[in-house]
TrEMBL record:
One of its GO terms (molecular function) is sigma factor activity. Belongs to the sigma-70 factor family. ECF subfamily. The keyword Thylakoid does not apply. Transmembrane segments: none annotated. Residues 100-149 form the RNA polymerase sigma factor 70 region 4 type domain. This is RNA polymerase sigma factor (Sigma-70 family). It comes from Longispora fulva. It comes from the Bacteria.
Length: 157
């Protein structure tokens, strides 16, 4: 049985146009790859379109889908790295501050990284971050506290 298509293509197009860039940034910060981030967001919007009328509020739904797909991608990547040797690509010279922040963010778990990004980069309230991560606001506060502690530890070095 095929689910009912999206009720209003204009609403979908407006949601896509308004949210695509910020969701790609969220996926990029979580996965560390722009191309993977774009693919994850695109796939999430495809799923949103397919679900059609089943989704009441598309923005939190697609944000949650992006976070979930990013977490799965990172888990697979960690497993791949554990079992295969890969050469590191040449990276252009970056400022020491940029390198330090990226290194500190890389030390965060994907869920902590997503919480920090949603809260401080996307400037989402804790309730929206909780919805995106599929948890309670108290859990978001805990994730932010732990994530910021790790960032402080690695940026103070």
């Amino acid at each position: 049985m095929v689910s009912e298509q999206w009720v209003d293509d204009a609403v979908f197009a407006a949601t896509y146009a308004a949210q695509f860039a910020s969701l790609v940034r969220l996926a990029y910060v979580t996965t560390g790859s722009l191309s993977v981030g774009e693919d994850v967001v695109q796939d999430s919007f495809v799923d949103l379109y397919r679900r059609g009328a089943d989704v009441r509020d598309p923005v939190p739904w697609v944000r949650r889908a992006v976070v979930s797909r990013c977490t799965s991608w990172v888990r697979r990547r960690v497993l791949e790295r554990r079992h295969a040797y890969t050469d590191l690509p040449d990276v252009p010279a970056l400022s020491p501050d940029v390198v330090a922040v990226r290194a500190a963010l890389a030390r965060l778990r994907p869920r902590h990284r997503a919480a920090v990004f949603c809260r401080y980069y996307l400037d989402l309230p804790e309730s929206a971050v909780a919805e995106a991560l599929g948890c309670r606001p108290a859990t978001v506060r805990s994730l932010l506290h732990r994530g910021l502690a790790v960032l402080r530890e690695h940026l103070d070095d």
